[in-house]
Target: Transcriptional regulator, BadM/Rrf2 family
Amino acid sequence: MFSKACEYGIKATIFIAVKSLHDQRVSLKEIAEEIDSPVAFTAKILQLLAKSGIVDSHKGPTGGFQMDRTGIDNVKVYDIVCAIDGDKIFNGCGLGLKQCDAEHPCPVHDKFIGIRENLTTMLQKTSMFELATGLDIGLTQLKR
Model:
């Protein structure tokens, strides 16, 4: 459903949120290792997340990535998806066709409207705090 970059972005943000709840910053290398992603690819994803204000990036020997408590509470999965994949999944055609709207619907247009609305609502209501605190089974789940 989401691009690989978006999946990694969600996992990385959850990892950063978990560590931030313990007042810890995490390095690019730690994040890439935890989410099982190539370092260079992870760096590009984190750059998008930082540019969007989802995570904070600090340079230097004590640098790394973190989120403040307000960010952990307020950042929703929807924000991450939009920062990395854009809003195409929320507005585009369910089949990926260029010409699809209410006047010229694709074969699944009407069926996809409800799915899209439910997905949008769920992603807009799911915060990083909820995901970070809900991972009581351990961070290694992020590698899946």
